[in-house]
Amino acid sequence: MIKTKYARMNREEKKELINSYKKTESGKIMMNRLFRLNIIGSLLIIYALYFYIKSFNNLKWTDFFVIVPLAISGLFFIIMSLKLKRKVLNNFAIKKK
Fold it and tell me: What does pTM read for this prediction?
């Protein structure tokens, strides 16, 4: 994996970059969307766990057709939002110089 400019920054530089990105108009919108994606992914995982625990005593193999896709889609939402955040912040760091 190629190291990006954002990946080579230390913790303080990353915090400064995130704060300066949040001050821009597109940054406010993008960070709200990414936060929303994390919330949706977390809720999907929580619902999959709830469904699994609720039906644990009489669990059928067909219940896994609901539980597994919910958990996978929740993980997908969270992972892709983190990747998108890293990509957007890297592009902002390159353009900012």
Answer: 0.84
Q: How far is CA 87 from CA 13, 43, 78, in A?
A: 16, 24, 14
pLDDT in tens, 64-85: 899 999 999 999 999 999 999 9
Of 51, 53, 55, nearest to 67 (Cα)? 51
Residue owning tokens 């892709």: 80
42: helix, strand or coil: helix
- Residue 11's contacts (CB-CB under 8 Å, 6 or more residues apart) are none
Distance in angstroms (rounded) separating the CA atoms of residues 54 and 11: 41
- DSSP-based helix, strand, coil % in the chain, nearest 5: 85, 0, 15
Q: Report how far apart, in Å, the C-alpha atoms of 36 and of each of 4, 39, 49, 54, 83 are.
A: 25, 5, 20, 26, 14
